[in-house]
Design brief:
Length: about 120
């Protein structure tokens, strides 16, 4: 992995951590990352390095009052990260993110289906 890629990944992780307690800002941050990067432009990531960011995303998935739009963005980002990472088994919500299992009943069909794409 190039030095630029290392710096970019660290910056993405810091952005997620900075806005973790503000759902609308987290949603905007993840949308921006998905819009800018779209596809994973980095080498395969080690999921162990993403533990803090994934903890933040787990909290969103666990809340029953998370906005549908935020859930969709979290699922898309998480799916992209998981598809391009090793050590996926260390992520507790792996099945939730990829299969849409165990999501709150209030989550719309769009949120569930985004994790399957």
């Amino acid at each position: 992995m190039s030095h630029w890629q290392d710096e970019r990944l660290v910056e993405v992780q810091k952005q997620i951590d900075r806005v973790s307690s503000k759902p609308s800002e987290l949603c905007s941050c993840l949308k921006h990352i998905l819009d800018v990067d779209g596809a994973w432009p980095y080498d395969k990531a080690d999921l162990l390095h993403w533990a803090n960011a994934l903890d933040v995303l787990d909290v969103v998935l666990a809340k029953t009052d998370s906005p549908d739009e935020l859930l969709v963005v979290v699922l898309k980002f998480t799916r992209l990260l998981l598809e391009n990472s090793s050590n996926r088994h260390v992520y507790n919500s792996y099945e939730v993110s990829l299969a849409g299992q165990h999501l709150p009943r209030s989550v719309c069909v769009r949120a569930r289906s985004s994790s399957l794409r």
